[in-house]
UniProtKB/TrEMBL annotation:
This is LysM peptidoglycan-binding domain-containing protein. Residues 1-22 form the signal peptide. GO terms for cellular component: outer membrane. One of its GO terms (molecular function) is hydrolase activity, hydrolyzing O-glycosyl compounds. Residues 62-105 form the LysM domain.
Amino acid sequence: MRKNFFCFVLLLTLFAPSFTYAKELTFEKSEFNGIKGLLGNGFVEDIITRQLSFQQDESDYIVYTVKEGDNLFRIAYNHSVPLDLLMEWNNLENTLIHPGNQLIIKTDEQFKKQYKPISIVADATQEFLPKTVAQTNSEPSTAEKELTVTATAYTAYCKGCSGTTAYGINLRENPHLKVIAVDPSIIPLGTNVWVEGYGYAIAGDTGGAIKGNKIDVFIPSYDEAMQWGVKKVKIKILD
């Protein structure tokens, strides 16, 4: 009778909504063997393994609350995750976020090893651009402000370039990001924008020749940057 009662209590403990941690389930070896015989070899171990897996899943991500001045590019960069995956985890169609929004950010070490930012050579191509962003480059219907600017292009390997922007973005390690250089007196650094022919981007860099209504768009491929040339484009300030 005592063994039957013990088994009943153990089962309640294992299936309780609180998912009691496995190390709290202590009992004598002889009693454990009796339970295995009653429930079947591996049954108890399987339940405990499932509990541990459940608890591990809970700790594999954090919930980040967007603060004033945040932007999606900076959040992705600060947490060492690709922008397109951050957007995918949170079902975002573009890079617009607002203070108070909550974002899921995966923190699992295996994930970080798998998706560690990679360095590239100068002939990188458009395949590095985030798929989600590339699919949502349609012109936004609303904007805080709209300008017509002269746009040129640059790479992370231009003469005298360090590869790190004025806003702290390492373009050599994150070639998939869409970044433009601006005159901060016209478009403040950190501003989310949409650029005709380029898509959603962040005002994340400056340049000695970028004054007034001029911008420089970052393109990872040297050949494609040269093909861009000099254009008059429409730019929308999104926040």
